[in-house]
Amino acid sequence: MLLGSIEAGGTKFVCAVGDTNYQVKDSIHIPTTTPEETLQKCIDWFDQYKADLSAIGIASFGPIEIRKSSPKYGYITSTPKPGWADTNFVGPFKEHFNIPIYWTTDVNGSAYGEYVLSTLFNKRVNSLVYYTIGTGVGAGAVIDGKFVGETGHPEMGHIRLKRHPDDLDFKGICPFHGDCLEGLVSGPTFEARTGKKGKDVPLTDHVWDIMAYYVAQAALDATLMFRPGQLVFGGGVVSEEFLKKVRPKFMELLNNYIPIDNVDEYITMPLAQNNGSATIGDFALALKAATE
Question: For the domain bounded by 124-270, which CATH number is listed?
Answer without folding.
Answer: 3.30.420.40
